[in-house]
Design a protein that fits this description.
single chain, about 375 residues, alpha/beta, six-stranded mixed β-sheet, three-stranded antiparallel β-sheet, 17 helices, globular
């Protein structure tokens, strides 16, 4: 079954044994499949509430993020409570006046008035795994999605314990999104591997199944090209002609697996590379450059490596030699990426005259 089919199956199951962990590389489309494909597939029966753990620094902050997102998705509840909150805000001036009078008579009474003025009804709404859909009628199940587990500043054990509370104690269907390679790298560095043992134990309790997302590289590459905006038709045609080349850059691995090196498959970076190369393409066309597909190949390669590194023994590595790059990207030509182009990519310094000279002139690149 496809990743989407497995996710739909999990969300529709009546039995409730634990959370599902969706794993895969950074940028391989894990969040996309939840936000776009799963939400669309289950739009009639489920609300998808996604919470990013990126930047969350406390468990209280995590609970607040869940509540805020739950309220945001369940709009009828949020709208009703906002009316109450707005009414309270309107009466703030009255409450302040009462507070100042009461304080002059009795300080304790004044504190009570302050408490009333700061009352927030949203804090008292219980988060439920099944809610009423006031727009279409009937009920919908709520699926909680915790994204970026590998990027969180929180303790992994505490975080999974918190997630388990929503899943096991409150009955939410729960999906956890992560690059588990990075999680295992983090926890394996603990004293005498104790962190690894703790992680395995809490994962066993929280996660009922793990699902590796293997994207359809060909379809996604095609979609990236066809859906690109603010690009000329000439450039889109050029990319379409070179679609197989782009796909080969992205997925082809070296035949020798003994060295344990591999490519990072990050669609965000591929999309970024194709958008940025448009300006290089215009320079090349203007100067009637030849072998333009070689420029495209080297530019995409440079973006992928500079933004994501490569994998060594399954772990992202940013200390990459030219030899490693050539092993992974056999047609990469450093001379197609002169210093002026690299400077533009890295620092945003667009010097068209220098770039034109380096790419199309007589001088060799630095």
């Amino acid at each position: 079954m496809s990743t989407l089919q497995e996710l739909v199956r999990y969300c529709n199951e009546e039995t409730h044994l634990g959370a599902l962990m969706l794993i895969g590389e950074w940028g391989c489309g894990k969040t996309y499949i939840i936000e776009k494909e799963l939400s669309k597939e289950l739009s009639e029966t489920h609300f998808i509430v996604r919470v990013s753990l990126l930047g969350v620094s406390t468990i209280e902050g995590l609970h607040n993020a869940v509540r805020n997102q739950w309220l945001l998705i369940c709009t009828p509840f949020l709208a009703k409570m906002n009316k109450q909150r707005n009414q309270i805000n309107k009466n703030t001036g009255i409450a302040t006046a009462i507070n100042s009078v009461l304080k002059s008579l009795n300080p304790i009474a004044g504190n009570v008035a302050s408490a009333v003025a700061s009352f927030d009804p949203l804090e008292y709404i219980p988060l439920e795994p099944v809610v009423e859909d006031f727009h279409k009628g009937g009920e919908k199940k709520v699926v909680l999605v915790f994204d970026d587990l590998d990027r969180t500043k929180l303790d992994l054990i505490d975080t999974l314990g918190c997630i388990n509370g929503y899943c096991e104690n409150k009955g939410f269907k729960t999906i956890v999104i992560a690059n588990e390679h990075l999680i295992l790298e983090k926890v394996s560095n603990g004293p005498q591997n104790s962190n690894m043992a703790s992680y395995r134990l809490i994962k066993e309790k929280t996660i009922t199944r793990t699902l590796l997302h293997i994207p359809d590289f060909q379809d996604i590459t095609h979609d990236i090209i066809s859906e690109s905006k603010d690009l000329s038709q000439e450039y889109k045609d050029f990319l379409s002609v070179n679609e197989k080349l782009i796909l080969d850059i992205f997925i082809t691995e070296p035949a020798d697996k003994k060295e344990r090196i591999g490519k990072a498959h990050n669609f965000r970076s591929l999309n970024c590379a194709l958008e940025q190369f448009y300006r290089i393409f215009e320079v090349l066309v203007e100067n009637q450059a030849e072998d333009m597909n070689s420029y495209l190949y080297s530019f995409i390669t440079y973006i992928l490596v500079s933004r994501n590194g490569i994998y060594k023994n399954g772990v992202p590595c940013f200390e990459v030699s030219q030899e490693d790059i050539k092993k992974l990207y056999t047609e990469y030509c450093p001379e197609k990426m002169p210093r002026s182009v690299r400077r533009w990519v890295e620092y945003g310094v667009w010097d068209k005259d220098k770039i034109t000279k380096d790419l199309c002139g007589a001088k060799s690149p630095e």
